[in-house]
Amino acid sequence: MTSLGDRYVHAVVRRLPAEERAHVGQELRSTIEERVRARTGPDPGEVERDVLVELGDPERLAATYAGRELHLIGPEVYPLWRRVLLLLLSFVPAVVALVTMLATVIDGERNPFVIVGEGLGTALMTAVQVTFWVTLGFAVAERNEQARPGLEGMERGFAWNPDRLPSEAERDVPRSESIAGLVFASVAGMLVAFGPNPAIPVGDERVPLFTETAYAGRWMLVVLTLAWAAVEILKLYRGYWSWPAAWFNVAQNAALVALVAWWVYADGLVSDRLLQAVPAGDPQLWRTILIVVVAVIATWDSAESVWKARAHEQAVAGG
Known about the structure:
14 helices; mainly alpha
């Protein structure tokens, strides 16, 4: 056997317990030599190389000799690991992000981009940390006999049983969709409540985006974002568009259209100076376009919620 074969045997046995290395090394050498002798070829070194390629990765072969599988989280604990991880990721990063944004506002920060950036950055790092520590904990516990009772107890807490099987129409709205909507509503509410009136450069000056009356009355938008959050909580709790959630959604959309229309016609909402700066800008035309766009989006969202509530009701009745 050449030095290449010796190196291969060494790469395999060094991953085995010390008491098994001599026996496995001798057996592996015999296997390689027998396979080389069973073949013919002009170059014995190339023949041996082909045999080593067939035997495969030394790490995988060592795991076969040791009777263990190569994995971080084994199939026995994988379902439990997945359930625990998804449960924590469903709310921990969002809660930490909201707390971080609130703390940033309390510290005196008023730039909405900084506030949201702090929250999103913290949420991402939190998700990475949660994933890492949960995975590490399961990997260690799976290999530690003393931790087995703890895993078994956790498994009983998350155990699946037929009573938990949902009906086909029980959860139409994924939890991730409701949680994302709740986070967006919270972020939007904080930006509206604590964000400054954006200034847009027009020529040599910076003109506030919203009129003073509209900016002063932004608390009404905060109320609507709270209503939006309430709808998302209803969807998260129910798992589908119920009739109360749908009609509540219709009401908040109607209130949004009414608020925007009142702002536009009472005070303009957006500064006239900005609208006049738009090429071929007719302030009245742009106000009308704004109301129409908001009304179309609100109508579509309302109709969709009502349609989904009705579809769920029919699915339950048919099931």
